[in-house]
Amino acid sequence: MKNLCKILFVICFINIITIGAQTNYPQNYFRNPLNIPMQLAANFGVVRSNHFHMGLDLRTNSQENLSVVAAADGYISRIKVERYGFGNAVYITHPNGYTTVYAHLNKYFDKLDEYVKERQYKDEKWEQDITFSPEQFPVSKGQLIALSGNTGGSAGPHLHFEIRDTKTEECINPLLFGFKIPDGISPIISGLYWYDRRFSTYEPGANGITVKKNGNNYTTDVIQVSSPEISFAVKAVDKANQGFNLGIYHAELLMDDRLIYSFSIDQVSYDDTRYLNGCIDYPKFTKDKMSIQHLSELRGMKLKNYNSSGKTGIIHFEDDSVHNIEIVLKDVSGNTSKLITKVRYARNSQQVTPSDKLVKPDEAKTVSTENAEINLSKNALYDAVNFNMDEKPSSNTDAISNTVILHNSYIPVHDGYTLKIKPNRKLLDKEKERTVVLFDYGSDTDVVKGKWRGDKVEARFNRLGKAILLLDQSLPSVSPGWQDGALIKNSTLRLNGRTKIGDIISFRAELDGNWLRFARVKDDFIYVFDEKCPKGSGSHTLKVTTTNTAGNINTQIFTFQR
Fold first, then answer.
1. What pairing do the DSSP bridges indicate for beta strands 466-471 and 435-440?
2. N vs C: which end of the chain shows fewer Cβ within 10 Å?
3. 488-522 in b/e burial notation, b at 16+ Cβ within 10 A?
4. In whole angstroms, what is the distance from residue 179 CA to residue 158 CA?
5. Of the candidates 76, 184, 83, the residue with the CA atom closest to the CA atom of residue 140
């Protein structure tokens, strides 16, 4: 009896240690990085285009220039200045093994701001990625480090806040660190879907099921499925008393009281965040803007620490009996919703037939047409695809090739792939130098330079759609927001960038022969007047040189008075 008690004690102790290891994050070590109550516009793990949201988006009451303070003692180890992405960002390394990140800032605190400005003028480059030693910019908990803003890839004023493991740089769900954010609302389920898994989740695709709500519980009619192998997916959001649609933290799928699959969004690295596309119904997301998360594993989805069940989530029916299904969703605060229903295999099925252009996860594949070739790596796809590739004449007046159709933009690609396209006529060397690849994804486009490999142009992409070669002999330009020679009374100079094809990839401004710091905001270039051009300094000449994607260079001269 004593030995049995000892054994039970050891088992319980091991379980306690195991559970603690999963949630052993310092509680209340980090403070709110704003001096207003924490309110979420987005949480960790929200579904975004081609990535998970990797931190918390903290509301700033639709205002800019709120004080942003250090969440704990440490030192500023890095800053970034970039057009998209984080915009202006600060990284603080802390002695407990974590790094906090603060993004979309308007301005750094004075001493740091002056350092960055000096570095920009020294490098004659606005975009920066600077690392610091511990003694350069030490900070204490609650110290002002910046002013909030709306810079980079931000759609409105807010503060993006992350907590990372300093060694691995993995982002960890900040809500696991004990921040006090009121949350009494359970996740809301608005849709349930099943998929025939004999071939692929993409073909024939999702089968929608109407969900009925009763408090925090949900149900459906008995689900009749026509395949002996299926999986489920759920459309759901969390609210957390904030009114915004937040992401689901934890989900479980059970059949006949057995766990079939579960996921938790505790930590993700930026190297792996694109695996999101294998966790959702990507066609539904791109076509209908619907966030539907799989309760199963796709073969090509290899995100670490996400599937917490060790099971695939694929259900294999061996009878036509009715089976019980339970889906449990939880947020970090423990608020729980349940969907309880039944499923039955109806034995009336037709299976998708693989084609000769079948591409599967974990298998590399080359598919070609008469004038084009795509090389997909073994890590390119999350699920099987009967890959269609075609080409047709283009109506674009700048086109020098057929339009190459790569399946469609509703199928995701994880790894970048190589595409080669042959022009439809012989080009002069100077024309080859100005050839670009235009890629149309349906909702947006991209233009890249590419490289010549024999008689074809080669470029890399990580989305599918339509591609074409264009000859771009046009010049980029900027248009000033003032009349030439005018007296400028505003606090800024603004230039709007323009290209016929592609983007302005290089911008240089010189004021009376000296480099001048213009920030890039989307397609605009903005200079904030400072000691380089004070009031009353008279007439000035501004020389601007721009280069577009194709490599065409344009130099423009403007004058103004100050």
1. antiparallel
2. N
3. beeeebbbebebebbebeebebebeeebbbbbbee
4. 18
5. 76
Domains and their CATH numbers in the chain: 40-177 (2.70.70.10), 188-345 (2.60.40), 358-471 (2.60.220.30), 477-561 (2.60.40.3780)
| Tens-place pLDDT, residues 242-262 | 778 999 999 999 999 999 999
Pair of tokens at residue 538: 């008279």
- Residue 45 carries which side chain, given as an amino acid letter? G
Identify which of 386, 441, 446, 380 has the alpha carbon closest to the alpha carbon of residue 413.
380
* C-alpha span between 74 and 136 (Å, rounded): 11
| Cα three-residue angle 218-221-222, rounded to 5 degrees | 120
Among the listed residues 358, 247, 252, the one whose alpha carbon sits nearest the alpha carbon of residue 292: 247
At residue 287, φ and ψ (nearest 5 deg) are -80, -50
E strands, 106-168, where? Answer: 107-108, 128-131, 138-139, 144-147, 158-165
As to burial, measured by CB atoms within 10 angstroms (0-12 exposed, 13-18 middle, 19+ buried), residue 320 is exposed
Instruction: Give the burial class of 197: count Cβ atoms within 10 A of its Cβ; 0-12 exposed, 13-18 middle, 19 or more buried.
Output: buried
Burial 368-386 (b: 16+ CB within 10 A, else e): ebebbbbbbbeebbbbbbb
pLDDT, tens digit (0-9, with 9 covering 90-100), for 210-239: 999 988 899 999 999 999 999 999 999 998
Rounded distance, CA 443 to CA 463, Å? 12
Q: Is the peptide bond before 37 cis (omega within 30 degrees of 0)?
A: no
Arithmetic mean of pLDDT over the chain: 93
Rounded to whole angstroms, the Cα distance separating 226 from 163 reads 45
Q: H or E segment at 255?
A: strand 250-255
The token pair that represents 551 in the structure block: 């490599």
